[in-house]
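User: Last request for today: this protein with P1T, please.
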Amino acid sequence: MRFETKAIRIGEEPDIENGSGDVVSPIHLSTTFARKRVDMLPGGYEYSRTANPTRDALERKLAALEDARFGLAFSSGMATETTALLALLRSGDHVIAFDDLYGGTKRLFRTFGRNFGVDFTYVDARDPDEVASAVKDNTRMIWLETPTNPLMKMCDIEEISEIAHDKGIIVAVDNTFATPYFQNPLKLGADIVVHSTTKYINGHSDSVGGAIMLSDEEMHERLRFHQNSSGAILSPFDSYMTLRGIKTLAVRMREHERNAMRIAEYLESHPKVRRVYYPGLESHPQHGLAKKQMSGYGGMISFEIYDTVKDATKFAESLRLFSLAESLGGVESLIEIPALMTHSSVPEEERRHIGISDTLIRMSVGIENVEDLIEDIEGAMEAL
Ligand code: P1T
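Assistant: Here's the final one, the structure of the complex with P1T:
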């Protein structure tokens, strides 16, 4: 099956022989499942934290999207990351992470590292040599985002995976920005893929969730054990919402990208714009890598305008169609200022080092009519 077919069909095969033939997975709200004898679970289910039929349907669909053997669904992207760290690391381990990551991920790594004795080293993973030279004897994991939030930096998953696998290091890739429609890290050698399903996978800004997809059986066992024991599971209702959202992932991503490309080109030619960060632009320093490891460039754009934070704020507040809000990946367009919003928990000095200026603006381009979006941007530029 191709991507669009899997996104619609997998996990929700109608059971005509024994069930009611639902073409859509029902929302199984039951917290527990009855049995006739203590040693017999007729439907295979015991207690909904451990496994639930609606979440199972979603986990099967999620796995199919990344061509993985296993999928696990969690109550948020952050709960997913927390579970991955708990399941796969031990005190005394060392982790190498891309220095440009979602602010909340860095905040989690800071507290996790401090409280559990895990050492994190941040590197500019655009250069694989920087990753290689950060490896120590106790390095257990390499954590990557590509493209990164918010600077749209990229790293070569294949090359970094080769460095890691020589030394038995786990490669985890947060694929939230690219989505499985445009990029498949497991096929490039990564061991686990992490998603905030809150974003493109659900796609409608009405469910907070997260997921891990992977094919390694032993790592899956450990993650599944911690999913149950720490309990940060996705609810049956949110599982249903996400199942529903995924069915249109391919069509949505094609539209997000089409609109984003038009807007990135428009911004790049605008005299009030200093710089545009979008992997689809030939001016992006890693456009070649984007072409190599992604099949499309996605719907996220960051850019800087001349000159002050006041101008950036005024621009963001003057837009009428772009909602001034954190998050991304929904059908509606959003705008935000990372230094003041999503990445405000990253210390100022670190933001400067990475390149997140106070005037950096991040757009999640929705799938509204692109002419309306450009007119909106034009109006806000004129207000400056
Ligand atoms: O918000 P949550 O579902 O817990 O996901 C966290 C997360 C993980 N990874 C990436 C790449 C993310 O962008 C996020 C959440 N990001 C935002 C809320 C934001 O506006 O950037």
